[in-house]
Each structure stands twice: as structure tokens, then as C-alpha cells.
Design a protein that fits this description.
single chain, about 150 residues, mainly beta, Jelly Rolls
Length: about 150
């Protein structure tokens, strides 16, 4: 397939490691490790996320890790609430888990982005994670093909 000149195509920004959590994330809990804000200067409306995760025990069939966004500096320097069991904040999507205990890399494409945000993971797998759980996000926008 040939893409015509002037057609809208994706242009990708620099991938950012938003979560790197070396502690186990218990079932029904949120990550508690290092969270790095994704602050955009180019204001990309979308992003592609990749979750790098290992489960201690094979998860239950159909289980997932849910992704939530916390918007930062939404009123001056005031931020949205950190997601927790009582208020999960902005739901972004879910990473479906394979029934394995080996390392998994799971994509979640076209997630909505704002100027400044943090991401949080909720473990809904029925099992704890093991090793370091990593979430990377690559901002993207549309541009015209030359």
C-alpha cells in the first residue's frame, strides 16, 4: 500500500518510563513504586503504552492490569487525586494478561494524553506481581506525509 503525499500519518515522540516498580503489586492494589510524570512540550493527544510485567503465579483467565491517569497541574499547581481503591481517577485502558509466570510485554495503543500526567496500575489479576513492573509511554500525534 502506498500512502499519498499529504496524508495524515503518526509522528512519534520520545518514549518515557512512567512507572518502574520493583516491589510486588498485590492483587486489587495499585503500584506504590517510582512514578515519573509524563510532561509534554509538543502536546501530543495520544500515546502508545507498553507494560513489562511478570506474575508470581499464573493469573486467572480473563484478568487484567488496569491503567489510570492522574492529571497534574490542572488548576495552577494543583493536581488530581492519586488513584486508590476508593477513587480510581481517569480510566485509560486495560492490559489483558496471559496465563503465564514468564515476563510479558503488553501493548495498549492510542491512549489519551494531556499536557502533564502520571500513570498508575491497578492489579486485577487475582495474583501478585514479581520482579520489576515497568510502564513506558510513547506520545504520538498526526503529521502530513511528505
Amino acid at each position: 500500500m502506498t500512502i499519498s503525499s499529504g496524508a495524515a500519518v503518526f509522528q512519534y515522540g520520545t518514549q518515557v518510563t512512567c512507572i518502574s516498580d520493583s516491589s510486588a503489586i498485590a492483587d486489587s492494589a495499585f503500584n506504590a513504586g517510582t512514578v515519573t510524570a509524563l510532561v509534554q512540550s509538543d502536546l501530543c493527544p495520544l500515546g502508545d503504552a507498553v507494560l513489562d510485567i511478570t506474575m508470581a503465579v499464573a493469573p486467572v483467565a480473563g484478568s487484567s492490569i488496569h491503567l489510570y491517569r492522574r492529571d497534574m497541574n490542572i488548576d495552577g499547581v494543583n493536581d488530581a487525586t492519586v488513584p486508590d481503591a476508593n477513587f480510581k481517577n481517569v480510566y485509560v485502558g486495560s492490559f489483558p494478561l496471559d496465563l503465564v509466570t514468564t515476563q510479558q510485554y503488553i501493548p495498549l495503543t492510542n491512549i489519551p494524553l494531556v499536557v502533564n500526567q502520571e500513570f498508575y496500575l491497578e492489579n486485577d489479576s487475582g495474583q501478585s506481581t514479581t520482579g520489576t513492573t515497568v510502564l513506558k509511554v510513547t506520545p504520538k500525534t498526526y503529521n502530513a506525509k511528505a
